[in-house]
């Protein structure tokens, strides 16, 4: 991925965010038949950060927001975003 690539939600996918005392959850589904995927914790954080304008430092932003060293995430952020793309929930 280059710095100019951005992730976006493709046509036919719906999503919403729920924030409460239990944390942040993202509900995302291919419409109209689903299934609905519930992303919480770090998964929700990765989703929200992936949709920001600049994807070049995604792992750094996720680590900072989660309060962990970037090394602790390893390649997990990249693999998770690749999985979302493979499922058709995100595109570039």
Automatic annotation (TrEMBL):
Pfam families: PqqD. It comes from the Bacteria. InterPro entries: PQQD, PqqD_sf. This is Coenzyme PQQ synthesis protein D (PqqD). It comes from Janibacter indicus.
């Amino acid at each position: 991925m280059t710095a100019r690539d951005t992730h976006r939600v493709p046509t036919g996918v719906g999503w919403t965010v729920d924030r409460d005392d239990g944390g942040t959850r993202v509900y995302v589904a291919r419409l109209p038949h689903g299934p609905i995927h519930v992303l919480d914790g770090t998964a929700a954080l990765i989703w929200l950060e992936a949709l920001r304008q600049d994807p070049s430092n995604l792992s750094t932003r996720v680590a900072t927001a989660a309060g962990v060293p970037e090394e602790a995430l390893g390649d997990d952020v990249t693999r998770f975003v690749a999985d979302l793309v493979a499922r058709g929930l995100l595109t570039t």
